[in-house]
Amino acid sequence: MSFSYQIKDLSQYKEAYKKSVEDPEGFWSAIANEFIWRKKWDRVLEWNFKKPEIKWFVNAKLNITENCIDRWAETQPNTIALLWEANDPAEPSRSITYRKLLFEVCRFANVLKNNGVKKGDRVCIYMPMIPELMIGILACARIGAIHSVVFGGFSAQSIRDRINDASCSLVLTADGGYRGAKQIPLKEIMDVALRDDTAVKKVIVFKRTGVSVSMQPGRDIWWHDELKKMDDLQSFECTAETMDAEDILFILYTSGSTGKPKGVVLTCGGYMVYTNYTFINVFQYKPRQIFFCTADIGWITGHSYIIYGPLSAGATTTMFEGIPTWPDSGRFWEVVDKHKVNILYTAPTAIRSLMAHGLDPVKDKKLDSLQVIGTVGEPINEEAWHWYHDHIGKKKCPVVDTWWQTETGGIMISNLAGITPQIPSFATLPLPGIQPVLMDENGKIIRGSDAAENALANGKKDTSELLTGNLCIKFPWPGMLRTTYGDHERCRLNYFTSYPGFYFTGDGCFMDTNGNYRITGRVDDVLNVSGHRIGTAEIENAIDMEPGVIESAVVGFPHEIKGQGIYAFVIHAEGKIDEDAARKKIIGAVTLVIGVIAKPDKIQFVAGLPKTRSGKIMRRILRKIAEGETENLGDTSTLLDPSVVEEIRNGKI
Ligand code: WTA
Question: Directed axis angle between helix 98-114 and helix 223-233, to 10°?
Fold first, then answer.
């Protein structure tokens, strides 16, 4: 099936953009009209960015799985919905057609129902990258249960926090998972997460690695046993629950600048329309193409572009269980050749780490099926962009640099493959429907092109200073977050108060004179480590739990592969300590509290931290020291004790 709203050339992009700003409701309703609804909307949009309150497709009814599965199971039943590649290249891959996917999802949806799950209940999913993860997610959506997927790299404590925050009543997990040469004991970790009281009544365990696990009677049940019960009942059908467009589809936890991660809430109708629209337009998806997004489903990229975007377009989506560097660093390229992938979507950190292995792992690969390649998750440096373009895309595939966030649901700023111009290291232009603005520190809109053009007219060559600001969005789009679960005030404070009347992204940005955006990174206290979002406050809390630690301050520093590394400055109670042993303990504490992804790369023990007289840590100074800048630390005269800076600088590692 081809989509009437697929943009086919630059003039259509301009036209669509113009229409989307002049008549957003007309624009989005024309697109939404092409989906299957039980009942259409009374109004397209109601919104208020002050409260905030955002509703798309008001009073419309639907079920997203009918759009992602049933309609394709009917019109193209034998098209492969999911291609799955195992961690171990020797293990056979699996493919699931749309017809089979419908069957599997209905069957498992009945398992959920049979275990007491009802519409609106929260289900925590902590699973490896296997087809059953996708089946579990879609089965939740089928019956209107809210899924909350937790990435496999999080610790027991992080899982517990997420389970408690959403009062999940059921958990889907596996005995273990494979990641390269390692096995992750998922069930064992889940057991620790559930040791204290939670609302969880049932844990359904998929057998993946065969490792022995303890099964708590009455609570823990095997996935295959539950399926068998369905076979006995022969209940393979499961009518999709009728959902309001604004009912919650899922919660996904993400880090902010303060305290614990927050549960970003995305809703059924708007998210469906938005992920589909962006998938079709950014990647210029054509029927029968094979799409491969290398993200983990534990993150938003996996939700939107392994599952909901591609499936709502009837595409073949690829899911890979393993890692790019095992058994060797040619693994991604091998998967591309094996499955004849046409569109590849990966992260700059993966590109940089593979680039570091040289061209040998690429040389013997064809990569001739590729037509479009893309990146997401962090700024891509020019060197990595060119390597990807030249050696993977063989200079013939457009590269899409897609900027977006968990909170935006789908891609916001990106070139459209082969349609709008690509510029290395620029996400370029907003998608139709997206109205970004650059703000200066005082909340004044930077006038972009006008200001730059005036400056250029006056003979000024470098306009970068004029055109750098904080990125905000001034009008709602269907995929955006509606609230943070259980705490609406937090949503308001986090995203809608820095610049009243605007959604604030937390990102800094530069715009060229043609209106192209280059996202430069977070301006709040959030780090982006290998494309994973982690709050510095979260890491500090974890470090501070370690006995002997008095206080800590965490900042990011440029890291060749990871994009950003984690640098911790720590004050320890005892004067002379065995620093290596103390470092190990701190790393252990962070791994326990958050997970392996938040391990500091560098830990420097200091006697004091640079604080203002009001007790605020001056992170700007620490950031500069961590970046290796020893001069130009800026004004330190407002510090309580300027001498600590000298000491920290001298002790830099
Ligand atoms: C960063 C991932 C530059 C940005 C989809 C954003 C990017 C954060 C890009 C969101 C890009 C994402 N260029 N920076 N193309 N894409 N980012 O929520 O800082 O895991 O705010 O969503 O990643 O990370 P999140």
Answer: 100
